[in-house]
Amino acid sequence: MRKDYNLEKRKYVIGGFIAIIAVIYVCRLFGLQIQDDKYKDYADNNAFLRKTVYPSRGMIYDRNDSLVVYNQPAYDVMMIPRDVHDFDTIDFCRTLSITPEEFDARISAMKNSASYSSYTPQTLITHLSAKDYGKLQEKLYRYPGFFIQKRILREYAYDAAANVLGNIREVSESDIKRDDYYKAGDYCGDLGIEKSFDKFLRGIKGNEILIRDARGRIRGRFEDGARDIAPVSGKDLKLSLDIKLQEYAESLMVNKIGAVVAIEPATGEILAMVSSPTYSPKLLVGRERGKNYRELVNDHYKPLFDRALMGAYPPGSTFKPSQGLIFLEEGIVNLSTAYPCYHGFINGRLRVGCHGHGSPIPLKPALQTSCNAYFCWGFKAMIDNKRSKYGNSANAFEVWKKHLVSLGYGYPLGVDLPAEGRGFIPNAKFYNKIYGENHWSANTIISVAIGQGEILATPLQIANLCATVANRGWFITPHVVKEIQDTVIDEQYRTQRHPTISAEHFNDIAEGMRMAVTGGTCRLANLPDIEVCGKTGTAQNPHGKDHSAFIGFAPYQNPRIAVCVYVENAGFGATYGVPIGSLVIEKYLKGYISPERKYLEERMLNSNTIIYSGVKKH
Questions:
Q1: What is the torsional sign of CA 238, 241, 245, 246?
Q2: Please, which residues have CB within 8 angstroms of residue 541's CB and are 6 or more apart in sequence?
Q3: How would DSSP label each residue in 499-553?
Q4: Are residues 363 and 487 in the same domain?
Q5: E runs forming strands in 290-394
Q6: Which of 108, 190, 372, 435 gives 169 a disulfide partner, CB atoms 3.0 to 4.6 angstroms apart?
Q7: pLDDT, tens digit, for every residue of 492-517?
């Protein structure tokens, strides 16, 4: 019989198909049983309920061990959608004090979330009140698939320092992608210390495994809790803030726009950091957080904007001590070099005004009287001297700028808070671009000599300069966290930084600032029992009334506090900056305000400069 080769071929084809199908099945079974945990998870979810146990967040104390931020219990209503059966929605909503429409909206938002899964716990309602928690706990058996998750809320012992402390909020999808610690419904630090030290404060989450019966009801802990993981509490923080001084400084800045920064010079520890207008930290806690946050965002006075840390202001005459240091270091002047002042700096058609005082005038009296002309002439001598070691104006300007950067201007200092501003110190390229190369001189940009023009600085940077003078030539990066439980703070907050200015010149600047208090523009800061050094600043404002500024430190020898005050639209530095700064110094060093200065305190507490800001609050 003749062999049929077509049938022979079909046998191999059919066998091949069977082999391919068998391989596909084996691969699929391997994937399902070995590689893919999804179905195992589904099976586990039928038998177990895994509950996250959240740790207690670290507490926050001030430098004197006063408790500032602590925790209180809070409760979230959770649901596992696949376990939810028919229930009385009206009764459920009534128990939780919400409307059926709000319930539907929450369910819809939950299902639209990128992290939604019908097999895993989803957050329905956050921050349940203790009263509603009690009502729901009694009826929870009526609502299969629902359970209560215990959490913590922040509680504040003082109604102060909101800009420093920050707050906590529910994590966003970007937070979850950035850090695998977070899951949907978790909370993280938002703004201030809560944000920058979140990894220390948040602790380590625990886990609890509960057994379900065939109907999904909880029957107890799996293996009597042997597989449970206990949470680890977050680390406590001790701040450098003196919370009482913070409260006092905030009270002096009520109805004013601006900032106060106080630093302990020897350590770089920030004693107070006020941004005004401010807000109560209690507003950003609980179920009203979202509503309150929107109101703060829309507030025309921008209370969420930290002016102490991020505000970029012309420093005005508080900039003059840095100019004196540069001129001395570069040999532009010595202590006997005197410049004329004819009620200002007059050079050709250029005039920069100044108030009346003796003329000609050397450096220390120039600081004492805040002479504009002296610092304009010194700047011109440095920038425009063609025979100098610099070669040309641009090179001289770069040397000038590098000294300022070493003093802490122009770049973030590195404070341990988020979103620090950098201010602005221009370079030669900046002016070359505007005026053309070799087409500008000191006269073109003379206003920068007195802290105006393009010069911008944050109140923190200005306070740091004051601390550097107080230390006679060094500073430690300013910081607000003094101690972290069982942890050493970063080395940069323990290490001295030395500017490019010789230490010997700082004594002369400090003496000039002392003269400003004893017989110059800072007389209101003169305390009979404390040697205060200071410098006023009146920063011109093209958009309205001038800004009032002040820097000061005390005592003259072995200083314990350095202060910067900046009040927008408040006029002369002596009108608001000096009184507020001197009151902060006196309060910190003595603990009280002398009876003979109570009138000054009362005036600052009750004064209102916000009306001159041009901002209308609606």
A1: negative
A2: 314, 547, 568, 569
A3: -SS-THHHHHHHHHHHHHHHHSTTGGG-BTTB--EEEEEEE--TTSSPEEEEEEE
A4: yes
A5: 344-347, 350-353
A6: 190
A7: 999 999 999 999 999 999 999 999 99
- Kind and range of the H or E run holding 12: helix 5-30
Same domain, 336 and 448: yes
pLDDT of residue 460: 98
Structural domain that includes position 332: 243-278+313-612
**Mean pLDDT across the chain:** 89
With residue 25 as reference, give the H or E element that holds it: helix 5-30
Give the residue from 503, 514, 512 showing the smallest Cα distance to 473.
503
Cβ atoms of 588 and 603 closer than 8 Å: no
**pLDDT (0 to 100) of residue 112:** 84
Which 3-state string (H, E, C) describes 552-618? EEECCCCCCEEEEEEECCCCCCCCCHHHHHHHHHHHHHHCCCCHHHHHHHHHHHHCCCHHHCCCCCC
The answer to whether residues 574 and 462 belong to one domain is: yes
Half-sphere exposure of 192 (CA within 13 A, CB side): 25
Residue 139 domain flag? yes
Which pLDDT tens digit goes with each residue over 277-297? 999 999 998 878 889 999 999
Mind listing the pLDDT tens digit for each residue in 437-481? 989 999 999 999 999 999 999 999 999 999 999 999 999 999 999
Same domain for 68 and 97: yes
DSSP letter at 202?
S
Same domain assignment for residues 229 and 247: no
Find the radius of gyration of the CA atoms of the chain: 33
CATH number of the domain where residue 572 is located: 3.40.710.10
Residue whose C-alpha is closest to residue 581's, from 261, 307, 163: 261
Using CA atoms, how far apart are residues 181 and 191, in angstroms rounded to an integer? 19
**579 within domain boundaries:** yes
Greater pLDDT, 39 or 491: 491
Which of 237, 259, 287 is the C-terminal boundary of a domain? 237
Q: In the beta sheet, which residues pair with residue 457?
A: 313
- Reference 418, options 292, 304, 310, 276; nearest CA is 310
Global pTM reads 0.88
Boundary of a domain, candidates 214, 237, 260: 237
What gap in Å lies between CA 136 and CA 142, rounded to an integer?
10
Say yes or no: 232 and 256 in one domain.
no
Q: How far apart are the first and last CA of the chain?
A: 105
Question: Cβ contacts of residue 607 below 8 Å, gap of 6+?
Answer: 255, 256, 576
**∠ CA 248-254-257, rounded to 5°:** 120
User: Do 448 and 546 lie in a common domain?
Assistant: yes
For residue 476, tell me if it sits in a domain: yes
- CATH code for the domain of 98: 3.90.1310.10
pLDDT over 50 (residue 42): no
d(CA 203, CA 387): 63
Percent of the chain at pLDDT > 90 equals 64
Domain count, the chain: 2
Task: Indicate if 216 and 270 belong to the same structural domain.
Answer: no
Inside any domain, residue 305: no
Residue 549: φ, ψ to 5°: -135, 160
Q: What are phi and psi of 167, to 5 degrees?
A: -160, 180
